[in-house]
Design goal:
Strand content: 15-25%
Radius of gyration: 21 Å
Structural class: alpha/beta
Strand order of the largest sheet: 1-2-3-4-5-7-10-13
Number of strands: 15
Bound molecules: beta-D-glucopyranose
Distance between the termini: 23 Å
Number of domains: 1
Largest sheet: 8 strands, parallel, barrel
CATH topology: TIM Barrel
CATH class: Alpha Beta
Helix content: 25-40%
CATH architecture: Alpha-Beta Barrel
Length: 452
Protein backbone atom coordinates (compact mmCIF):
# COMPACT_ATOMS: atom_id res chain seq x y z
CA UNK A 1 0.00 0.00 0.00
CA UNK A 2 1.47 3.35 -0.95
CA UNK A 3 -0.91 5.95 0.29
CA UNK A 4 -0.21 9.48 -0.81
CA UNK A 5 0.96 11.48 2.23
CA UNK A 6 -2.08 13.74 1.94
CA UNK A 7 -4.67 11.32 0.67
CA UNK A 8 -5.73 9.18 3.55
CA UNK A 9 -8.59 9.33 5.99
CA UNK A 10 -9.31 8.00 9.46
CA UNK A 11 -11.02 5.06 7.73
CA UNK A 12 -7.65 3.82 6.48
CA UNK A 13 -6.74 2.99 10.07
CA UNK A 14 -9.62 0.54 10.42
CA UNK A 15 -12.80 0.46 12.46
CA UNK A 16 -11.13 -0.89 15.59
CA UNK A 17 -8.35 1.73 15.71
CA UNK A 18 -8.26 3.66 18.99
CA UNK A 19 -8.11 7.43 18.61
CA UNK A 20 -7.08 8.95 21.88
CA UNK A 21 -5.63 12.00 23.49
CA UNK A 22 -3.32 11.91 26.51
CA UNK A 23 -2.36 13.96 29.55
CA UNK A 24 -0.77 13.42 32.97
CA UNK A 25 -1.76 14.32 36.52
CA UNK A 26 1.21 16.47 37.49
CA UNK A 27 1.08 18.33 34.20
CA UNK A 28 -2.63 19.13 34.23
CA UNK A 29 -4.47 18.73 37.49
CA UNK A 30 -3.20 21.53 39.68
CA UNK A 31 -4.83 21.44 43.16
CA UNK A 32 -1.38 20.28 44.19
CA UNK A 33 -1.71 21.26 47.82
CA UNK A 34 -5.39 20.72 48.43
CA UNK A 35 -8.10 18.12 48.95
CA UNK A 36 -5.75 15.99 51.04
CA UNK A 37 -3.09 15.47 48.36
CA UNK A 38 0.45 14.94 49.62
CA UNK A 39 3.42 16.64 47.97
CA UNK A 40 5.02 14.95 44.97
CA UNK A 41 8.66 15.07 43.98
CA UNK A 42 7.67 17.58 41.28
CA UNK A 43 6.03 19.91 43.81
CA UNK A 44 9.29 19.93 45.74
CA UNK A 45 11.66 20.00 42.78
CA UNK A 46 9.89 23.00 41.26
CA UNK A 47 10.66 24.99 44.42
CA UNK A 48 14.38 24.61 43.82
CA UNK A 49 15.92 27.66 42.26
CA UNK A 50 16.87 27.36 38.62
CA UNK A 51 15.38 23.92 38.04
CA UNK A 52 12.31 24.94 36.05
CA UNK A 53 12.21 27.51 33.30
CA UNK A 54 10.80 30.84 34.51
CA UNK A 55 10.50 29.39 38.01
CA UNK A 56 7.19 27.80 36.97
CA UNK A 57 5.38 25.45 39.36
CA UNK A 58 2.73 22.81 38.78
CA UNK A 59 0.54 24.00 41.70
CA UNK A 60 -2.34 25.15 39.47
CA UNK A 61 -1.28 24.00 35.99
CA UNK A 62 -4.46 23.68 33.86
CA UNK A 63 -6.71 23.35 36.90
CA UNK A 64 -8.03 20.10 35.44
CA UNK A 65 -8.99 19.10 38.98
CA UNK A 66 -11.84 21.62 38.87
CA UNK A 67 -12.41 21.78 35.12
CA UNK A 68 -12.26 18.11 34.17
CA UNK A 69 -15.87 18.04 32.99
CA UNK A 70 -15.39 20.83 30.48
CA UNK A 71 -12.02 19.48 29.39
CA UNK A 72 -13.37 16.00 28.79
CA UNK A 73 -16.19 17.52 26.81
CA UNK A 74 -13.58 19.24 24.64
CA UNK A 75 -11.74 15.94 24.10
CA UNK A 76 -15.03 14.42 23.02
CA UNK A 77 -15.85 17.37 20.76
CA UNK A 78 -12.52 16.93 18.96
CA UNK A 79 -13.65 13.43 18.00
CA UNK A 80 -11.50 11.31 20.31
CA UNK A 81 -12.90 8.10 21.74
CA UNK A 82 -10.19 7.32 24.31
CA UNK A 83 -8.72 9.46 27.04
CA UNK A 84 -5.37 8.67 28.63
CA UNK A 85 -4.65 10.24 32.00
CA UNK A 86 -2.59 9.31 35.02
CA UNK A 87 -3.43 8.83 38.67
CA UNK A 88 -1.41 10.96 41.04
CA UNK A 89 -0.01 8.54 43.60
CA UNK A 90 0.32 11.24 46.32
CA UNK A 91 -3.27 12.33 45.72
CA UNK A 92 -4.63 8.97 46.79
CA UNK A 93 -1.82 7.96 49.17
CA UNK A 94 -0.42 11.26 50.50
CA UNK A 95 2.45 9.53 52.29
CA UNK A 96 2.96 7.01 49.49
CA UNK A 97 1.86 4.18 51.75
CA UNK A 98 -0.48 4.09 54.73
CA UNK A 99 -3.54 6.31 54.94
CA UNK A 100 -5.77 6.54 51.89
CA UNK A 101 -7.08 9.99 50.93
CA UNK A 102 -10.77 9.45 50.24
CA UNK A 103 -11.15 12.76 48.41
CA UNK A 104 -8.40 11.74 46.02
CA UNK A 105 -10.02 8.37 45.40
CA UNK A 106 -13.36 10.08 44.74
CA UNK A 107 -11.80 12.50 42.26
CA UNK A 108 -10.64 9.73 39.92
CA UNK A 109 -14.03 8.04 40.21
CA UNK A 110 -15.56 11.29 38.99
CA UNK A 111 -13.11 11.54 36.08
CA UNK A 112 -13.64 7.91 35.10
CA UNK A 113 -17.43 8.19 35.38
CA UNK A 114 -17.42 11.30 33.23
CA UNK A 115 -15.26 9.58 30.59
CA UNK A 116 -17.64 6.64 30.50
CA UNK A 117 -20.64 8.94 30.36
CA UNK A 118 -19.17 10.75 27.34
CA UNK A 119 -18.11 7.58 25.55
CA UNK A 120 -14.38 8.14 26.12
CA UNK A 121 -12.58 4.93 27.05
CA UNK A 122 -10.35 5.69 30.03
CA UNK A 123 -6.71 4.59 29.62
CA UNK A 124 -5.23 4.91 33.08
CA UNK A 125 -1.50 5.36 33.60
CA UNK A 126 -0.42 4.34 37.08
CA UNK A 127 2.86 6.21 37.20
CA UNK A 128 3.56 9.34 35.20
CA UNK A 129 6.48 10.68 37.23
CA UNK A 130 4.87 12.24 40.34
CA UNK A 131 6.27 10.07 43.09
CA UNK A 132 5.06 10.94 46.61
CA UNK A 133 7.77 13.14 48.17
CA UNK A 134 7.52 11.06 51.35
CA UNK A 135 8.85 8.04 49.44
CA UNK A 136 11.70 9.99 47.87
CA UNK A 137 12.86 10.77 51.41
CA UNK A 138 13.20 7.02 51.87
CA UNK A 139 15.22 6.64 48.68
CA UNK A 140 12.50 6.78 45.99
CA UNK A 141 13.07 4.61 42.95
CA UNK A 142 16.58 3.78 44.08
CA UNK A 143 15.28 2.04 47.21
CA UNK A 144 14.71 -1.72 47.21
CA UNK A 145 11.49 -0.98 49.14
CA UNK A 146 9.98 0.46 45.98
CA UNK A 147 8.59 -2.95 45.08
CA UNK A 148 6.55 -3.06 48.26
CA UNK A 149 5.34 0.54 47.99
CA UNK A 150 4.40 0.28 44.32
CA UNK A 151 2.57 -3.00 44.76
CA UNK A 152 0.45 -1.50 47.50
CA UNK A 153 -0.40 1.49 45.30
CA UNK A 154 -1.24 -0.64 42.25
CA UNK A 155 -3.41 -2.94 44.36
CA UNK A 156 -5.36 0.03 45.68
CA UNK A 157 -5.93 1.40 42.15
CA UNK A 158 -6.94 -1.99 40.77
CA UNK A 159 -9.38 -2.63 43.61
CA UNK A 160 -10.91 0.83 43.43
CA UNK A 161 -11.20 1.34 39.70
CA UNK A 162 -10.88 -2.12 38.18
CA UNK A 163 -14.62 -2.58 37.78
CA UNK A 164 -14.81 0.50 35.55
CA UNK A 165 -11.37 0.70 33.93
CA UNK A 166 -10.10 -2.10 31.72
CA UNK A 167 -7.26 -0.34 29.92
CA UNK A 168 -4.16 0.19 32.05
CA UNK A 169 -0.65 1.49 31.51
CA UNK A 170 1.79 0.64 34.29
CA UNK A 171 4.68 3.08 33.76
CA UNK A 172 5.22 6.11 31.64
CA UNK A 173 8.68 5.97 30.06
CA UNK A 174 10.86 4.30 32.70
CA UNK A 175 14.03 5.35 30.89
CA UNK A 176 12.80 8.96 30.93
CA UNK A 177 12.23 9.27 34.65
CA UNK A 178 15.21 7.18 35.76
CA UNK A 179 17.76 8.91 33.52
CA UNK A 180 16.50 12.50 33.82
CA UNK A 181 15.65 12.19 37.50
CA UNK A 182 18.42 10.02 38.93
CA UNK A 183 21.41 10.35 36.58
CA UNK A 184 21.18 13.76 34.92
CA UNK A 185 19.39 15.74 37.65
CA UNK A 186 17.26 17.59 35.12
CA UNK A 187 13.94 16.24 36.36
CA UNK A 188 12.63 15.48 39.84
CA UNK A 189 13.99 14.33 42.18
CA UNK A 190 17.12 15.95 40.72
CA UNK A 191 19.66 13.31 41.63
CA UNK A 192 22.90 12.88 39.75
CA UNK A 193 24.54 9.62 40.69
CA UNK A 194 25.18 6.64 38.49
CA UNK A 195 24.52 4.25 41.35
CA UNK A 196 21.10 5.83 42.05
CA UNK A 197 20.28 5.55 38.36
CA UNK A 198 21.27 1.88 38.18
CA UNK A 199 19.15 1.03 41.22
CA UNK A 200 16.23 3.09 39.92
CA UNK A 201 16.38 1.28 36.57
CA UNK A 202 16.24 -2.08 38.25
CA UNK A 203 13.39 -1.19 40.59
CA UNK A 204 11.43 0.30 37.70
CA UNK A 205 11.94 -2.83 35.60
CA UNK A 206 10.65 -4.95 38.47
CA UNK A 207 7.76 -2.61 39.32
CA UNK A 208 6.65 -2.62 35.71
CA UNK A 209 6.29 -6.39 35.57
CA UNK A 210 4.93 -6.74 39.11
CA UNK A 211 2.36 -4.02 38.36
CA UNK A 212 1.24 -5.97 35.29
CA UNK A 213 0.82 -9.13 37.35
CA UNK A 214 -1.25 -7.37 40.03
CA UNK A 215 -3.58 -5.90 37.42
CA UNK A 216 -3.93 -9.29 35.72
CA UNK A 217 -4.90 -10.87 39.00
CA UNK A 218 -7.28 -8.21 40.27
CA UNK A 219 -8.93 -6.83 37.14
CA UNK A 220 -10.89 -9.38 35.13
CA UNK A 221 -10.67 -8.65 31.41
CA UNK A 222 -7.89 -6.09 31.84
CA UNK A 223 -5.99 -4.87 28.77
CA UNK A 224 -2.55 -4.10 30.17
CA UNK A 225 0.35 -2.17 28.72
CA UNK A 226 3.31 -0.04 29.65
CA UNK A 227 5.05 2.68 27.68
CA UNK A 228 8.56 3.09 26.37
CA UNK A 229 10.29 6.23 25.20
CA UNK A 230 12.38 5.43 22.16
CA UNK A 231 14.52 7.17 19.61
CA UNK A 232 16.29 5.93 16.52
CA UNK A 233 19.99 6.46 17.25
CA UNK A 234 22.01 7.48 14.21
CA UNK A 235 25.83 7.75 14.21
CA UNK A 236 27.02 11.15 13.05
CA UNK A 237 29.75 9.58 10.91
CA UNK A 238 30.64 6.01 10.09
CA UNK A 239 33.85 6.18 12.15
CA UNK A 240 34.26 3.21 14.52
CA UNK A 241 34.11 5.63 17.50
CA UNK A 242 30.82 7.16 16.40
CA UNK A 243 29.38 3.73 15.63
CA UNK A 244 30.27 2.54 19.12
CA UNK A 245 28.84 5.70 20.70
CA UNK A 246 25.58 5.14 18.82
CA UNK A 247 25.48 1.54 19.96
CA UNK A 248 25.86 2.51 23.63
CA UNK A 249 23.17 5.12 23.44
CA UNK A 250 20.85 2.79 21.57
CA UNK A 251 21.14 0.25 24.37
CA UNK A 252 20.16 2.88 26.91
CA UNK A 253 17.43 4.65 24.99
CA UNK A 254 15.78 1.70 23.28
CA UNK A 255 16.73 -1.64 24.74
CA UNK A 256 17.19 -1.18 28.46
CA UNK A 257 13.57 -1.69 29.46
CA UNK A 258 11.89 -3.62 26.70
CA UNK A 259 14.37 -6.50 26.73
CA UNK A 260 13.87 -7.40 30.41
CA UNK A 261 10.11 -7.01 29.88
CA UNK A 262 10.25 -9.56 27.08
CA UNK A 263 12.14 -12.02 29.26
CA UNK A 264 15.55 -11.44 27.69
CA UNK A 265 17.12 -9.81 30.77
CA UNK A 266 19.14 -6.63 30.41
CA UNK A 267 20.93 -6.23 27.09
CA UNK A 268 24.31 -7.90 27.53
CA UNK A 269 26.81 -6.11 25.41
CA UNK A 270 30.30 -4.80 25.65
CA UNK A 271 29.31 -1.75 27.69
CA UNK A 272 30.74 -1.27 31.16
CA UNK A 273 27.61 0.40 32.45
CA UNK A 274 25.57 -2.74 31.86
CA UNK A 275 28.07 -4.86 33.73
CA UNK A 276 27.68 -2.44 36.62
CA UNK A 277 23.90 -2.65 36.34
CA UNK A 278 24.05 -6.42 36.57
CA UNK A 279 26.55 -6.49 39.42
CA UNK A 280 24.99 -3.67 41.38
CA UNK A 281 21.58 -5.30 41.44
CA UNK A 282 22.51 -8.95 41.07
CA UNK A 283 20.18 -8.61 38.14
CA UNK A 284 20.80 -12.08 36.67
CA UNK A 285 18.62 -13.45 39.45
CA UNK A 286 15.60 -11.45 38.31
CA UNK A 287 15.27 -12.26 34.61
CA UNK A 288 11.98 -14.07 35.13
CA UNK A 289 10.50 -11.53 37.50
CA UNK A 290 11.24 -8.61 35.16
CA UNK A 291 9.24 -10.29 32.40
CA UNK A 292 5.52 -9.81 31.87
CA UNK A 293 3.23 -10.71 29.03
CA UNK A 294 1.81 -7.25 28.26
CA UNK A 295 -1.23 -7.07 26.00
CA UNK A 296 0.29 -4.04 24.31
CA UNK A 297 3.30 -1.81 24.51
CA UNK A 298 2.99 1.95 24.27
CA UNK A 299 5.50 3.60 21.96
CA UNK A 300 6.44 7.23 22.58
CA UNK A 301 8.83 8.60 19.98
CA UNK A 302 9.47 12.30 19.66
CA UNK A 303 12.73 12.51 17.69
CA UNK A 304 15.71 10.55 16.36
CA UNK A 305 19.05 11.09 18.09
CA UNK A 306 22.21 11.76 16.08
CA UNK A 307 25.23 10.97 18.15
CA UNK A 308 29.01 11.17 18.07
CA UNK A 309 31.82 9.95 20.23
CA UNK A 310 32.75 12.31 23.06
CA UNK A 311 35.40 11.19 25.50
CA UNK A 312 34.53 14.02 27.90
CA UNK A 313 31.19 12.45 28.81
CA UNK A 314 31.74 9.91 31.57
CA UNK A 315 30.82 6.26 30.94
CA UNK A 316 28.56 6.86 27.96
CA UNK A 317 31.21 8.75 25.98
CA UNK A 318 28.70 10.05 23.50
CA UNK A 319 27.02 13.35 22.84
CA UNK A 320 24.12 14.40 20.70
CA UNK A 321 24.50 16.52 17.59
CA UNK A 322 21.43 18.70 17.89
CA UNK A 323 18.93 19.20 15.09
CA UNK A 324 19.62 22.95 15.17
CA UNK A 325 23.32 22.32 14.52
CA UNK A 326 22.49 19.94 11.71
CA UNK A 327 20.01 22.48 10.31
CA UNK A 328 17.19 20.00 9.88
CA UNK A 329 13.51 20.75 10.58
CA UNK A 330 12.79 20.75 14.29
CA UNK A 331 10.18 21.73 16.87
CA UNK A 332 10.37 24.45 19.51
CA UNK A 333 12.00 21.86 21.81
CA UNK A 334 14.80 21.54 19.23
CA UNK A 335 13.60 18.01 18.43
CA UNK A 336 14.09 16.80 14.87
CA UNK A 337 10.91 16.28 12.87
CA UNK A 338 11.39 13.01 11.04
CA UNK A 339 8.36 10.86 10.27
CA UNK A 340 10.50 8.28 8.44
CA UNK A 341 12.41 7.69 11.64
CA UNK A 342 9.11 7.25 13.51
CA UNK A 343 8.12 4.59 10.98
CA UNK A 344 11.43 2.78 11.41
CA UNK A 345 11.22 2.78 15.20
CA UNK A 346 7.70 1.33 15.08
CA UNK A 347 8.89 -1.52 12.86
CA UNK A 348 11.90 -2.12 15.02
CA UNK A 349 9.91 -2.52 18.23
CA UNK A 350 7.46 -4.77 16.42
CA UNK A 351 10.30 -6.98 15.20
CA UNK A 352 11.16 -7.91 18.78
CA UNK A 353 9.49 -11.29 19.10
CA UNK A 354 6.82 -11.27 21.80
CA UNK A 355 5.22 -7.86 21.29
CA UNK A 356 1.53 -8.53 20.70
CA UNK A 357 0.35 -5.10 19.82
CA UNK A 358 1.61 -1.53 19.69
CA UNK A 359 -0.31 1.57 20.68
CA UNK A 360 1.30 4.93 20.05
CA UNK A 361 0.52 6.24 23.51
CA UNK A 362 2.00 9.71 22.88
CA UNK A 363 2.89 11.68 19.78
CA UNK A 364 3.02 15.41 19.35
CA UNK A 365 5.12 18.53 19.06
CA UNK A 366 5.69 21.91 20.68
CA UNK A 367 5.69 25.01 18.51
CA UNK A 368 5.70 28.71 19.28
CA UNK A 369 1.96 29.14 19.14
CA UNK A 370 0.34 32.50 19.39
CA UNK A 371 -3.22 33.42 20.09
CA UNK A 372 -4.25 36.21 17.72
CA UNK A 373 -7.81 37.49 17.78
CA UNK A 374 -9.05 34.30 19.36
CA UNK A 375 -7.29 32.05 16.81
CA UNK A 376 -4.22 29.81 17.06
CA UNK A 377 -3.03 29.00 13.56
CA UNK A 378 -0.64 26.12 14.38
CA UNK A 379 -0.21 24.90 10.81
CA UNK A 380 3.16 23.34 11.71
CA UNK A 381 1.49 21.01 14.22
CA UNK A 382 -1.08 20.02 11.61
CA UNK A 383 1.73 19.21 9.19
CA UNK A 384 3.45 17.25 11.93
CA UNK A 385 0.43 15.10 12.70
CA UNK A 386 -0.37 14.62 9.04
CA UNK A 387 3.15 13.33 8.38
CA UNK A 388 3.41 11.18 11.52
CA UNK A 389 0.02 9.57 11.01
CA UNK A 390 0.94 8.80 7.43
CA UNK A 391 4.18 7.21 8.68
CA UNK A 392 2.10 5.13 11.08
CA UNK A 393 -0.02 3.92 8.18
CA UNK A 394 3.13 3.02 6.29
CA UNK A 395 4.37 0.99 9.26
CA UNK A 396 1.04 -0.81 9.36
CA UNK A 397 1.34 -1.56 5.68
CA UNK A 398 4.66 -3.26 6.50
CA UNK A 399 2.78 -5.51 8.90
CA UNK A 400 3.34 -3.73 12.22
CA UNK A 401 0.33 -4.34 14.45
CA UNK A 402 -0.47 -0.79 15.61
CA UNK A 403 -3.94 -0.39 17.02
CA UNK A 404 -4.10 3.11 18.41
CA UNK A 405 -2.75 6.64 18.47
CA UNK A 406 -2.89 9.08 21.37
CA UNK A 407 -2.07 12.69 20.59
CA UNK A 408 0.15 14.42 23.11
CA UNK A 409 -1.53 16.42 24.47
CA UNK A 410 -5.08 17.66 24.92
CA UNK A 411 -4.11 21.13 26.10
CA UNK A 412 -0.96 23.12 26.82
CA UNK A 413 0.26 22.06 30.23
CA UNK A 414 3.16 22.00 32.68
CA UNK A 415 5.97 20.71 30.50
CA UNK A 416 8.23 19.55 33.34
CA UNK A 417 11.57 21.42 33.37
CA UNK A 418 10.34 23.61 30.50
CA UNK A 419 7.56 25.01 32.68
CA UNK A 420 4.67 26.52 30.73
CA UNK A 421 6.80 27.76 27.85
CA UNK A 422 6.67 24.64 25.68
CA UNK A 423 3.17 24.22 24.30
CA UNK A 424 2.21 20.76 23.04
CA UNK A 425 -1.59 21.07 23.22
CA UNK A 426 -4.33 20.78 20.65
CA UNK A 427 -5.99 23.38 22.82
CA UNK A 428 -4.30 26.61 23.84
CA UNK A 429 -4.40 27.52 27.53
CA UNK A 430 -4.02 31.06 28.82
CA UNK A 431 -2.49 30.19 32.18
CA UNK A 432 -3.47 33.53 33.73
CA UNK A 433 -7.19 33.12 33.03
CA UNK A 434 -7.45 29.38 32.28
CA UNK A 435 -9.20 30.28 29.03
CA UNK A 436 -9.13 27.39 26.56
CA UNK A 437 -8.96 28.02 22.81
CA UNK A 438 -9.06 25.15 20.35
CA UNK A 439 -6.06 25.44 18.03
CA UNK A 440 -6.10 24.77 14.30
CA UNK A 441 -4.69 21.31 15.01
CA UNK A 442 -7.60 20.57 17.34
CA UNK A 443 -10.06 21.43 14.57
CA UNK A 444 -7.97 19.36 12.18
CA UNK A 445 -8.44 16.30 14.41
CA UNK A 446 -12.13 17.06 14.77
CA UNK A 447 -12.52 17.09 10.99
CA UNK A 448 -10.38 13.98 10.55
CA UNK A 449 -12.23 11.99 13.18
CA UNK A 450 -15.74 13.16 12.42
CA UNK A 451 -15.51 12.86 8.64
CA UNK A 452 -18.42 10.84 7.23
C1 LIG B 1 6.30 12.57 28.54
C2 LIG B 1 5.32 13.72 28.65
C3 LIG B 1 5.95 14.99 28.09
C4 LIG B 1 6.28 14.75 26.64
C5 LIG B 1 6.88 15.96 25.94
C6 LIG B 1 7.00 12.52 27.21
O1 LIG B 1 8.29 12.06 27.39
O2 LIG B 1 5.66 11.36 28.81
O3 LIG B 1 4.93 13.86 29.98
O4 LIG B 1 5.17 16.11 28.27
O5 LIG B 1 7.22 13.71 26.55
O6 LIG B 1 8.09 16.30 26.49
Amino acid sequence: MTLHPDKWTAKDFGEDFIWGVAMAAAQNEGAANSYGKGPSIWDNFSRRRGKIRDGARPAVACDFYHRYKDDLLLAKALGFTAFRFSISWPRILPEGIGTVNKEGIAFYHRVIDECLHLGLTPYVTLYHWDLPAALEKEGGWSSHLMGKWFNRYVTLCAEEYGAKVKDWIVLNEPFGFTSLGYMLGRHAPGRMAMSSFLSAVHHAALAQADGGRILRKLVPGAHIGTTFSCSEVIPYTQSPEDLQAAKRLDILMNRLFIEPTLGKGYPREDFRLLERLELHNKAWKYTDRMAFDFDFIGIQNYFPTVVRHNSLIPVIQASEVKARTRKVPHTAMGWEINPGSFQRILSRFWRYGGVKKILVTESGAAFRDSLVNGVVDDYQRIEYYRAYLHALLMARAEGVNIKGFFAWTLMDNFEWAEGFRARFGLIHVDFATQLRTIKGSGYWFRDLLNAP
